[in-house]
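Work package 3, deliverable 3.1, input record:
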Amino acid sequence: MDVASPGLAIDGLGLRHGARVIFRDLSMSIDGGTFVVLLGASGVGKSSLLKIVAGLSRPSQGTVRATDGKPLAGRIAYMGQQDLLYPWLNVIENVMLGARLRGQRRDRDRASYLLGRVGLAERAQALPSELSGGMRQRAAIARTLYEDRPFVLMDEPFSALDTFTRAQVQDLAAELLVGKTALLITHDPLEACRLGHHLVLLSGAPATLSAPITVRGTTPRPADDPDLLHTQGHLMRLLTEAHES
Amino acid sequence: MRGASAILRPLITIAVLVGIWAAVARYAAIPAYLLPSPESVATALWHNRLVLLQNAGTTLAETLSGLGIGTVLGALIALLIVFSPVAERWLMPLILLSQAVPVFALAPLLVLWFGFGMASKVVMSVLIIFFPITAAFSGGLRRVDRGWLDLARTMGASPLSMLRHVRLMGALPAFGSGLLVATAIAPIGAVVGEWVGASAGLGYVMLNANARIETDLMFAALIVLAAMTMLLWALVDWVLHRILFWAPDTTRSA
């Protein structure tokens, strides 16, 4: 099932707020089962783009569609900037949130299994407020996996974590999201280089997309991988230049 | 240990207040019809215990009816104004008007319309109670985290499911704050109504005692009223803590 994840085609996407053009004519395609990272400075329009892809807001023009021709709605799992765990539900109920919201039967066994995969088997009954930031984000990953959607969209999901916890959660995400068609947005070049098969830069006003940059090696790449270090330096330069111009 | 001190502390507070009261009543040369001594109030409380209990029952019934109806009405109005801009535009001036006119000024009219029985007191209570509920609950409904709603939408939740599982739950702490305010002020409507025209209730007892300058009985009725309100508030607070166990009190360390 994972192997057959369709790709994503973004075609001529434009967004304006009043007279201000955030971006126009953005096009990119993501092959099925690949992990693409969209990198850009804060405020460039990354989150807006991801919300359009997630179907949470409408573009001024352009389309987003799946390459298999079926509708995207109902096939996307979304991870936001915060873990978005519901504080009144315990961890395992949060993992099964989608089923609760759709009025479906909750599969407790599968939720327990997924909590085991993210190392939270012992904390299934805990409330989110009793967990550390890293644990909360791992619970959010389990919730994303429970949905078992072919597309996974992530909006800087790890930005609030400290460096070491972030690296651990990145490893986990890379391992568990294999086979999904994933789009992650971040402002962290290291995160982009560790996780992405292809990296795309969003910069300028109105924002434009760079040609995809491909990093060699399998993900998650170690932080001292020479290819990674090289690409990270390159990205840092591109981002700084884009920021100054 | 904590439980014991939670009971002990208010008792100490009350003991100190009664001590000051006793001292003032005894040594300040204030006539008993202005400030009766604690002993005479205690005697009045005991002698009139059946009358007070019976009338407290009436006031309690009015208060609870007002609280029940006012809470449901306040919550419904909050839902209506949050989800319908049209309803908000038409209802908001009316809601504000209902609070701008003091219930004390409305009381004679309400007694005239709804009679000397419980109905006029319940209407007055509802008028006072619904507003803090509407204000707090509508604020809570509006301020629910957008991220929670976005997540629910990507998971394919229907609008009704989002209301039930996300907005209502997210607004529950704010609703609880409103309910606590409403509970504390709930007896006002009942007592005011009883002053204006009634044949039972603690307000009625106080009015009659006042006319006969039985100040000790007035004090006794006041004590019963205060005890009733505090018990009711403590009960609501306890229930809310059980329901909102997940809302962390960030002023206390974990």
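The radius of gyration of chain A is 18 Å.
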